[in-house]
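Exercise 7.
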Amino acid sequence: MGRGASVPGPRLGEAMARGAVYGAGAAVCLAVTALVLWDDARTDLLEAVAFLGLVAGAVSLLTGLFFWACCAGEVLRWRDLFRTTGPSEVIAVLAPCLVRVGVLLLVPVPVAAVLGRFAG
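Solution. The predicted structure, written as tokens, is:
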């Protein structure tokens, strides 16, 4: 898998931190949207975000962590996608993406749950 790239691969903490920053932005958008919507629509939106974010975020995060463990630490960046030579290297590209998306989806879940308590 390794080809001596000049840029080191992403670290797990960096991928999770970037996903958390993106998720915080999504949580702000969710809070603003929840303030604008009507009561019934607001409750439906917050329930959907809480449920779907929890399920999809957990699946994405666990799959990404599994792929990360399978790559044995040789994780690649997106710019390396077109230089891959086999399926294992494609998984090495997908690992940080799935971790980032999983954390992004999980961050707004508590915000939706708290806003749902006040809305309903």
